[in-house]
Amino acid sequence: MLVDSHCHLDKLDVSAYENGVQGAIDAAREVGVNQILTISVDLDSFENVYAFTERAGVIASCGVHPLHKEGLLSSPERLFYLASRDKVVAIGETGLDYFYDKEPELHVAQRESFAVHLDVSNQLKLPTIIHTRDAKQDTLELIKSHGSLEIGGVLHCFTEDYAMARSALDLNYLISISGIVTFKNAEDLRDTVRKLPLESLIVETDSPYLAPVPHRGKKNEPKYVRDVAQFVADIKQIRLEELMEISSTNFHRKFSKVDPSDVLL
């Protein structure tokens, strides 16, 4: 089994497929992808994201991306209500991003929204999917103050250093590796992957963004998670099949609401 642990089915460019998103799902299944976690980035578009879960093997998250300024949360009620759906298996993506926007007022709003997400994660006992960039200390402090050591979550599309990854593991978080690991300038990330235990890793596409080598320049899609998995397997010097099995086991251990037998058809 291979899982694309983070993609945005509602944002894919599916013009190459006669049957739209189903074509992209079929293409992923043909290369061994069995499940897809499609990610919410704002509550107003959540229904569009959740609609994909009508398909076998597709599950969803519910949350507001830290750069979605207009949607950042100050209260939990709407998130709690939407995230209570049967096929919502995680809260997020949420987190902090101090890289793309340096406005201090936005950072305050991001921290408040992140705390709301962590609180709802605790209430619903769902893992939190975290986007973090240039905000290591604040991210870890909020996880410690509002998160649950029992539930934990995932640092998605990880690009920070080994020290942060190690701290996240101590807080019961997995590290999710995207196509960035294949990029020429990502040697520091590759070194982090070498150091991390296999039991801490899952893989993702973050499609339609960040297509891995050798697909750079193309729109990313879930089938390319196999390329990410192969690259990580090569770094760890194990067979692809072993990496697929371990990463899928890690995924299902963390996202315990997901039924492993619910696979793409």
UniProtKB/TrEMBL annotation:
<feature type="binding site">
    <location>
        <position position="206"/>
    </location>
    <ligand>
        <name>a divalent metal cation 1</name>
    </ligand>
</feature>
<keyword id="KW-0479">Metal-binding</keyword>
<feature type="binding site">
    <location>
        <position position="8"/>
    </location>
    <ligand>
        <name>a divalent metal cation 1</name>
    </ligand>
</feature>
<dbReference type="InterPro" id="IPR001130">
    <property type="entry name" value="TatD-like"/>
</dbReference>
<protein>
    <submittedName>
        <fullName>Hydrolase, TatD family</fullName>
    </submittedName>
</protein>
<feature type="binding site">
    <location>
        <position position="131"/>
    </location>
    <ligand>
        <name>a divalent metal cation 2</name>
    </ligand>
</feature>
<keyword id="KW-0378">Hydrolase</keyword>
<feature type="binding site">
    <location>
        <position position="93"/>
    </location>
    <ligand>
        <name>a divalent metal cation 1</name>
    </ligand>
</feature>
<dbReference type="InterPro" id="IPR018228">
    <property type="entry name" value="DNase_TatD-rel_CS"/>
</dbReference>
<dbReference type="GO" id="GO:0016788">
    <property type="term" value="F:hydrolase activity, acting on ester bonds"/>
</dbReference>
<dbReference type="GO" id="GO:0004536">
    <property type="term" value="F:DNA nuclease activity"/>
</dbReference>
<dbReference type="GO" id="GO:0046872">
    <property type="term" value="F:metal ion binding"/>
</dbReference>
<feature type="binding site">
    <location>
        <position position="6"/>
    </location>
    <ligand>
        <name>a divalent metal cation 1</name>
    </ligand>
</feature>
<feature type="binding site">
    <location>
        <position position="156"/>
    </location>
    <ligand>
        <name>a divalent metal cation 2</name>
    </ligand>
</feature>
<comment type="similarity">
    <text>Belongs to the metallo-dependent hydrolases superfamily. TatD-type hydrolase family.</text>
</comment>
<dbReference type="InterPro" id="IPR015991">
    <property type="entry name" value="TatD/YcfH-like"/>
</dbReference>
<dbReference type="GO" id="GO:0005829">
    <property type="term" value="C:cytosol"/>
</dbReference>
<dbReference type="InterPro" id="IPR032466">
    <property type="entry name" value="Metal_Hydrolase"/>
</dbReference>
<dbReference type="Pfam" id="PF01026">
    <property type="entry name" value="TatD_DNase"/>
</dbReference>
